[in-house]
């Protein structure tokens, strides 16, 4: 059970980066749909738990050491090639979003220039990637309970100090909606995108687990925890929609409403999650093309870090809204491949 909890905690930690913990993603994909966003949260929870279990069990079965090992197994040679490189591109894209998220967080909390916060996170990420990152999974797992506690406190406060009714807040939320898609399609796209994001590290982590049931339970636990966080953040934001409309980091604004010290704790939590995801994504991207033991790895890390900085200047909110939407569709294809591979595997066992 301890191993399953570690997998579940790491599963959450991989996904919970700048967009998720800040509330920006939740506003775009759930809160802006008003009451229907709550239904979307439950649908996403089911998807995270189901697909997380499938990835964990298949990875354990095939003893995978990288996403490449599993991609070709579940999607064939031709499609595997396309999916492999698209996933690698997504890893870099998410790392860029984390860099932009760090800049937005430090600006909103401390008034620092956005570019300065982004550079600091990039330098820290590159430095970590060049060192030993084998313990990153444990670090990510440890951070998950901390975030869950802070988000729960903010949720209770937001619900207890609502200025308007949920009906009135729902109207404000829907006016801020930027997507024309239905709530259920948006929820599924959000889930599938995040599966694409965590797929690489999840396959490596669960490939080292010899017991498929233990690995699968970790995927289920992680999915349920993700759903709980989505629901808590969604309710917090919906209760205070009149306060957080247009903010890059809405959860930070709510924490500051409680007390400046709560805002400071939330800032550190956000930066910690951003750091975890940035390192995980950037490292997964780099090792796909360069061997860590070779000098070219360090040179390439610096070059791609510089490219990531310029890409991050597009802005945190813009990157989340545009890049995540495109990535969701490719992630959806990956989810279909994963579920079919899991069903075929179980049929052979039966």
Automatic annotation (TrEMBL):
Regions crossing the membrane: 39-60, 81-104, 110-129, 136-160, 187-208, 220-241, 261-285, 297-317, 323-343
The keyword Transmembrane appears for this protein: yes
Keyword hit for Repeat: no
Keyword set, alphabetical order: Membrane, Transmembrane, Transmembrane helix
InterPro entries given in the database record: YkvI-like
Name of the molecule in the record: Transporter
Native source organism of the sequence: Lysinibacillus pakistanensis
Taxonomic path: Bacteria, Bacillati, Bacillota, Bacilli, Bacillales
